[in-house]
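Human: Can I borrow your eye for a moment on a structure tokenisation matter? Separate attempts, laid side by side, tell us more than any discussion would. Could you pick a protein and write out its sequence and tokenised fold? No explanation is needed for now; the record alone will do.

Assistant:
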Amino acid sequence: MSDKPYSPASERNRDPILAVLREYFADRKRVLEIGSGTGQHAVHFAAALPQLVWQSSDRAENLPGIRAWLDEAGLPNTPAPLELDVNQPQWPAQRYDAVYSANTLHIMSWAEVERLFQRLPEIMRPDARLAVYGPFNYGGRFTSDSNAAFDASLKAAVPHRGIRDFEAVDALARGIGLNLLEDRQMPANNRCLVWARS
């Protein structure tokens, strides 16, 4: 299908992320992906992890592209994508034992990141795990020159965007009862963070 959106970055990072998900989502059943973007990750991960029902979601304007990927793949474990904006009052009624999000925290404003974590308990089962992929700062510092340049480009386009501090995000997670299981170094100066209830 020629009308499918395509992200080269999603293609590059999908297998390193899949290695993390194979480990931490092996015993999971229902995953909510927040900010599915193009839909490439949903198709790749659902095909590789057939025991999971992979529920994609995003803002309304991104849903047609996600549907194009899901429809072409025709997988039995990828229901239709949900409309989900962290600012909307209504969140899914379903509860999930895993939540995944990639390259979203630096796109949202910090207030929206806070709102995301405040709302997570509504959709997470008591034993749920949370996996978040993307670039992070540590001790208020960039981990690479390329991340510093990326942060500058984000802020130049939309001032409220930017690479988030790991410590601040981890504090939000701890504030809703999640403990960090792993902070894994990933290619291209990214990280994959995994949290779970104690």
Notes: The beta strands are 30-34, 53-58, 82-83, 96-102, 124-134, 136-137, 164-165, 178-186, 190-197. DSSP finds six helices and nine strands in the chain.
